[in-house]
Amino acid sequence: MSLLGVAVATALEHSYGEGWESAAKNVLGVALLVCGLAFLVKALVQPRLTGAGIALLAGTVAVVRALRRGAAARAPVDPVEEAAGS
């Protein structure tokens, strides 16, 4: 990924000249502010569960419980015990 970043930076510098970095900084700053505000709004706004939402949540909980029971039945292997030979 870092090589891709270097390639993109080089291509932008060749295309737009030396001033592309200040524009990129402004775009990044705006994107960070928007994402930060969206995260704040998400944290402050609590969703209301409707009947369909509660049913979906109950179905999800049932699936997780079934998966846990299946995992417990398979008796997970402890890598430390396996390495010790017990």
Description:
This protein is mainly alpha-helical. The chain folds into two domains: 1-46; 47-86. Helix content is 80%, strand content 0%. The chain has four helices and no strands. The protein has helices at residues 2-16, 20-44, 51-73, 79-84. The longest helix is centred in the middle third of the chain and has 25 residues, at 20-44. The chain is elongated. The protein starts with a helix and ends with a helix. The model has no long low-confidence stretch (mean pLDDT 76).
Low-confidence stretches: none
> What general outline do the C-alpha atoms trace?
elongated
Please state the average pLDDT score: 76
Helicity, as a percent range? over 70%
Distance, first to last CA: 42 Å
| Number of structural domains | 2
Extended strand count? 0
Radius of gyration: 25 Å
Query: What is the overall number of helices?
Result: 4
Helical/strand content category:
mainly alpha
Biggest pleated sheet: none
Please write the string of helix (H) and strand (E) elements. Answer: HHHH
Strand content: under 5%
List keywords for this structure.
86 residues, mainly alpha, elongated
How is the secondary structure organized here?
Elements: H1 2-16, H2 20-44, H3 51-73, H4 79-84
In short:
The protein has four helices and no strands.
